[in-house]
Design goal:
about 120 residues, mainly alpha, 6 helices, about 0% strand
Length: about 120
């Protein structure tokens, strides 16, 4: 009987449990806007407004810029990987060195986190 009560208690307790925090949980609306703005100023030229790798400069690249909206790719990488490639460029993760580093984000961890959150928001 005690085991059944314990199991029932655990089941009830888990019903109200919240899900794992999302990358945006600790960011303000202003910080999220800064991430979106950074994407528009820094990434759109190659990745396109929707992150599909179809920006104005993408025609000249081989390989083409990553389709950031691709669900399979999004599911295959973690936020640390995305942060690293943004900060240090493609060569830092064994990808195309045509993906440049973004030194303007050095010392701006909240903007970087917001930029990663924006990249995550592009997932289709």
């Amino acid at each position: 009987m005690k085991v059944k009560i314990l199991l029932a208690s655990l089941a009830l307790a888990s019903c109200g449990a919240s899900e794992a925090p999302t990358p945006t949980d600790s960011l303000t609306a202003q910080e999220l806007a800064a991430g979106k703005d950074t994407f528009a100023k820094t990434c759109v030229l190659c990745h396109g407004a929707e992150g599909q790798g179809d920006g104005a400069a993408s025609a000249g690249f081989d390989p083409k810029p990553r389709d950031l909206s691709d669900a399979a790719w999004q599911d295959s990488v973690d936020d640390e990987y995305i942060s690293k490639i943004i900060q240090y460029g493609g060569g830092a993760v064994g990808k195309s060195p045509a993906m440049p580093a973004t030194p303007l984000l050095k010392g701006k961890p909240k903007v970087l986190k917001a930029l990663v959150a924006h990249v995550r928001s592009l997932k289709k």
